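Progress narrative, work stream C.
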Amino acid sequence: MNRLMRAAKLVAQGRFELQGVEVPPINSAEEVRLRVTHVGICGSDLHYFRHGAIGDQVIKYPFTLGHEGMAVVQEVGWEVKGLKPGDKVVINPAVSCGRCDQCLEGRPHTCRHLQFLGCPGQLEGCLQEYIIMPAKNCFPVSADLFLLGVLVEPLAIALYGAHMAGSVKGKRVAVFGCGTIGLCLIRYCFLEGSRIIAATDKVPARLEAARRFGAHWVGNPDQEDIVAKLNSLSALNSSFNLAKNILEPGQFDLAFDCCGDPKALNQAIFLLKPGGQLIIIGIPETNQISFDPHRLRRKEIAIHNVRRQNNFFAAATEFLKVNRKSLSSLITHHFPLPEIQTAFDLASRYESGLIKAVIDL
C-alpha cells in the first residue's frame, strides 16, 4: 500500500494544512490499523483550534485533532480476537493502561497514564486517513448505524453525566448549552420522564432543536435574564402550562452545564434548590472560574465534575440504535477532508444552523 497518507494538521491557531505523513505500522499484538472514514468536530476541538490550548494542555504545532471517529478495520495484530479486516467500528478515543489504581477501581477515564486522541502531549488525533488503536478501543457497529457513529462518544458522555446525577425521572432539570452533549441529555431526560426541562443556548438553531428533543422551555442568555425568567412563577406556569407551585423560585433539582460558560455556572447556582446538584460537563475557556461561596454553602449545592465517559460506550450505542431517527438530526453538516478549514471556521462561528459537523474522509 501507499506509505503516505493525508493528515489534517493544525499548524497555527485557526489554521489547518493537509500534509502527507507516514502510514503508521502495527507494533503490538493487540493493535489494529483503522482506515478512518468519519470524524465529528467536538467543542474541545474548537477550543484547540481557536486558542491552541485547554488549560495546561498546549498544542505543539503541527498537530492532528479529532477524537469522535468512525473507521473500518484494515489490519489486525496477531493476538486480536473479535475483529477482522472490513469490520466497521466506532473508536473509543481514551486509551487507558489497565494497571493503575484508577483502572483497577473501575475508573479508566481517570487513568493515571491516560492517552487520548487529539490531546496535546498524548495522542495525535483521528483527522487522518489511518490510525493505530488497541483492539479494546474499537466497538463494532452495524452498517445502519455506521454514519451516525460519530455521535456515540458525545452521547456516552451525556449518559454518564446523567448517571452521575442519579435518577432524572420526575426531576426538574436545567441544561445550559445545547450542543451535541446538551441535546443528548435533553432527549434522555425527556424519555426518562423528567418533570420539567429548561434549556439555554445562544444559537437559535440549537434552541429549536432543544424544543424538538423535549425541552419545555428554552431561553437565550443574550436576549433575556435567564434567572429572572425561570424564577418567575407566573412566567413558568404560562410557559410550561403547569399547575401552581410545581416550580417555585430556586427549585430545580439538577443543573447540567454543557457549555463551560462561567455565567451559566452561576445562573445554575441561583436556580438550584437547596440540596440541588450541579453537574459540570462543559470545558471553560478560562483557567479560573468563581462562585458565590455563601450561596453554595447556604444551599448545600453539590458539584460534580464529569470527566468524559466511563464505560458508557455500549449503553450509548444501544441508545443511538433505539433513538436513531431523532438523534440523526444532530448531524447537520458534512465536509470532505480538503474543506476542513471551512468546516472549523463555520463550526467555530456557530453559523448556518450547525449543530454537529462531520469530516468525511
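Work stream C, second folded protein:
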Amino acid sequence: MTPEEEIVALRAENAALRAQVSELPLLRAQVEALAAQVQTLQARVAKDSHTSGKPPSSDGLKRRTKSLRKPSGKRAGGQLGHRGETLHLVATPDAVVEHRPTVCPACQAALDEAPVVGRERRQVQEMPPVRLWVTEHQALRLRCPRCQAVSVGTFPAEAPSRAQYGPPLRALAVYLVEEQLVPLGRVQQVLCDLVGVRLGRGTLVRWIQQASATLAPVEAQITAALQRAPVLHSDETGVRRAGTLAWVQVASTSRLTRYAVHAKRGADATDAMGILPGYAGVSVHDGWKTYRQYTRCRHALCNIHHLRELTFLEEQYQQGWASELKTVLREMKAATEQARAEGLRSLPAATRAAFVTRYRALLAAGHAANPPPARRPRQRGRIKQTPARNMLERLWLEQEQVLAFLDDLTIPFDNNQAERDLRTLKTHQKVSGCFRSDPGAEAFARLRGYLVSLRKQGQPLFVALQTVFAGRPLYPALG
C-alpha cells in the first residue's frame, strides 16, 4: 500500500470512528432507559403482599408471605389465662333417663323397692332429628246463630298462599348463601340432604331478593349512622359482575358496615353511596385520590400501607432510611396504644414532638440519599422519579395525614377495619368467581352489610334473618 492509499484508508477509518462517537450519547441514553425499564420490571415482579397492597392469595404457592408483625416470643398454642371452651352440664335437660341396678352385686337381692341414696349425672348433648315441620292453618267459616251471617277466620301473615316455606327455612337458605358464601347449587344439596327439601334455584334467588328489599330501610339507617360517625374507614376492591369489572365500595366502623357495588371506582361510586359527600368526621383510607376530593372531613392515611412500601424500598432498593422509619412508625403505634390503655386522649406533647423530629430527620436523610433526577436538554414535562423519591415526597407533604393518629387517639394507626370488611368479597370471588347479575350483586352488598353489622355487635344472625322474613327486621344499634 502506498503512503497515499494508507492516508485515504486512515481518513475513512477516522470518519467511521467519529460517526460512532457521535452516536454514543444516544446509545448511552438508550442503555440508561433500558436499565431503568429492567429495574422497574424487576421491582414489579418482586412486589407481593408484604411489600404492597396485593392480597396474600396473589403470592403463589411457592412464596412464603413475610409478615410485618414482629415475633412475640410466646410459645404456640393457648396462652396462660386463655378462657377456652368446655362442655358443661345444663341445669334443665330436655329428658332424664334413670339407670337403676336390678340386683345387689353383694347378695343378689332384688333392688326394685330400694331407696335412692345418691345419683351421678352425665349428659349427652345431641341435635334432634332434622325434618321439615309442617303446620297447617285452617280458616274456619262460622255461621252466626243470631243473624246467620258467615264469618271467616284470618290466615297469619306467614301463610299468604296455599303452600309456602316459613321464615326459619328461608332464613337458613339465605344465611348459607350470604353469610357462609355457599354457592346456590350446594345450598340446594345441603337442604335436600339434611331436611329433605328440594328447592329450585329460582326459589333461592327470590328469597334473597325478598330479604334485600325488606332490608332497604335498614340500609338507609346504617348509611345515616355512618355519616355521623366520628371516624370512618373507606376502601374499595374490584369484582366481576355480569361479565364486566365492577367495584365494591365499603364504609365502616367497628360496629357498622355498608357496601355498595358500582361500575366505576372513582367519585361516581362514592357519591352514589351517599356517605362521603357530606361527611365531616375523620376519613381513614389508603390515599386513593378519590377520597382526597372530599374536603369537609379530616383525612388520615393507613400506615400499614406505608410499612409495606417501606419494606419494598428496603429490600429492593437498599434504602437504609426506610428500615429506620419503619421502626419509628412501629414505636409510634406502640406509644399510642399504651396511651390509649391509660385513658389518655392524645400523646404527651413532648413525646409527640420527639417522634415528629425523628420522622422528619429520617425523611431528610432519605432525600439526601435520593437527589432529584437531572433534567435532560430540551426535556419537557414532569421528570419521572424513582419509587424512593416518590415515597419520600408523599410522606413529607402529607405528614399531617400520616401522623394524624398521634394527635387524636380515636384515630387508628391503619385502615385494617375496612380491609377486614372487604376480605369477604375476595373469599366470595374464590368460591363463586363472580356475580351473575346486577340485582344479585346489589342484594349481596345489602345483606352482607346487614349481617356484618350484626356480627360486630354480637347479634344472632340466624334469628335476625328470621325477623327479616317475618317482615319486622331486627335493626343493629345505630348509636
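The mean pLDDT is 90. No further action is required on this item.
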